[in-house]
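Work Package 3 (structural annotation) set out to generate three-dimensional models for the target panel prioritized at the project kickoff. During this period the team completed the workflow that converts sequence records into discrete structure tokens, so that structures can be stored uniformly alongside our sequence database. As a representative example, we reproduce one entry of 584 residues exactly as it appears in the project archive.
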Amino acid sequence: MNKFYLAYKILSPKSKKSFWFVLFLSLIGMCLEVVGIGMIFPAIETFTQPQWITNYPFLYNFSLEVGEMKFILICFLSLVGIFFIKNIFLAYLAYFHSKFSFAVQVETSVFLYKSYLSQPYEFFLSKNSSELLRNTIGEVNSFVGYVLQPMLIIITECLVLFAVISLLIYVEPIACLSVIFFVALVGWGFNKFTTARVAEWGNERQKHEAKKIQYLQEGFDGIKMIKLLDNPSELLKKFNFHTDCGAMAGKNQYAMQQMPRLLLEFLSILALSVLAFSLLSKDPIEGSSASKLGMIAFGLIRIMPSVARVVNSYQSLIYGLPCVQVLNDEFHNFKFSKKKDVQGNQEKFNQSFKINGVSYAYPESDRESLADMSIEVKKGTCVGILGKSGSGKSTLIDIALGLLKPLKGNLLVDGKIIGKEINPTSWKTMVGYVQQEIFLIDDSIRNNVAFGIEASLIDDNKVWESLRDANLCDFIESLPEGLNTKLGEKGVRLSGGQRQRIGIARALYKDPSLVVFDEATSSLDTETEKSIMDTVYGLKKEKTFIIVAHRLSTIARCDKVYKIENGKVVAEGSFDEVNNISNL
């Protein structure tokens, strides 16, 4: 029952209501199944022993009125009608099952994706994206296919089994109970023998699925290097290994699912033979025994597929249990805060932005990346941050952007603390960000510049203005499709400098007070970098800039420079002053 409860916990409140509605429909289906099978006995009796109706005055009088043959015809038409209604209803139930299952798939996948995107930036620093992809797509699909649908089948079929078996026991108690006990014993033994193996195969599937996605991502992301080396064999070897192992687990599970059907087919013949012998030994005369045997035979024909589906679904549930555990763990870890943001009217800063006495250490690290760091950026100035790799530059920028929360110290805008006197969300709207590897989507220039904004709300005038400020307007105008030009995956159709200018245009589109360049030109050649920095310094009258670099030429024209080593400021002042102090 714990397995069912874990799966049930994943459902949203709306889906839980639908789940109970499915159970209600299943109860109606169970009643129709019983009525249908229960009609078999009187139908056969009417055909073989019409005199049985003398025990029921109403039916007997009715048969006298309409005649024997017409009465028999009415009985069989009633039987056909009941089965027609039953099957129409069960077809609708199957459709509703399917609709419910796939609605849960969409809802759970979207909820999981939304939940991931709602997590703090630190969450992603300790996660492998292949696991997040697997959970959002693969594990949700597995939950629906291996757990939710089988769970519905188990509940529905168990209701039918309970009703039909109760009816058969009522008709022939001792023989039916003996057969049912024997079949249940065999089914229990089969599940006992296979459960551990199926659970192990489920864990194997999950583990290898994550690795498959990881190596696919690495292969496509590193395609240039793979082509240069002209040797993808190692990556292919790893992908092939995990694909083969995952397929092996699936093959074993599928083969095991076929066993119950074959076993139950044999048990059906055995049970029918035992029941026939039992009935005929008690009542060798045709009539009642034949009717009972016909009804029991039909009942067995209905029961055995249900038993097979229950056993198969239980195995599927065991196979899919790892995904239930993963999804439950993920949902349990998500924390959706309903705290109200601190209200702040300020949309632009008027005097300065200050990082005051900030310290930070990454989770599970015993070393501080920043130690009592203080930096001031005055409005309308350009501040350079210089330091070697690992000095703490990126951590400093992540804190300035509001992506990381300092362990000590705070951020101030015009003397007001962000998070107390200024809404953190408002602060993010004041900041533009240009990184080294510009994130571009496989979409139009318009949608890349105005990334994150609904298409109908994009202001083309602002897009052109941003492109003009980024010195990319002439290039875009020369393209046949202009703003509608598709950039390709990761902007593959653009040069490195053009990608950086798209990044600058995106940062400028939301008209920020402060623009942060995080080694945005470090991968460009000197000439392209100079051209882009000329563009940046040309905007200095309108914007305030923080420029992070390891190349001296990038920050030579900054109003103030901070040199960072081991998470501390070791020198500050003009470029020449810092150069004289620390011999840049």
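The chain has two domains: 2-333, 352-582.
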